Amino acid sequence: HVQLVESGGGPVEAGGSLRLSCAVSGNLHSDYCMGWFRQAPGKEREGVAYIYSEGGTTFYADSVKGRFTITQENAKDTLFVYLQMNSLKPEDTAMYYCAAKFTGACALTGDYNYWGRGTQVTVSS
Hints:
This protein is mostly beta strands. The chain has strands at 2-7, 10-13, 18-26, 33-39, 46-52, 58-60, 68-74, 79-85, 94-101, 114-115, 119-124.
């Protein structure tokens, strides 16, 4: 079993920055894909970015490319996955979720095995 806990969300003004963190613990496979997703009220869930364990390959949705950066850091028993968000816009307002995937190709589709509970990001204009 794998546990994911997000943190770092909050209110921010447009143009500002936030760094989201996802602490991943449990039976983490050596080969994984970690993704960040978001969902705004009344909208479908959207894949934001992912990072692949092998070589740290990353991929971003067009809506965040050039503004968001996903990174990872291995601690003793915990993997940390970060989402640095710069030049935030009101349309970035959403609940942000971290997710882990151990099978299949990395993608921004929602077929991830484990999910966190989310952290709210609110960007005011």
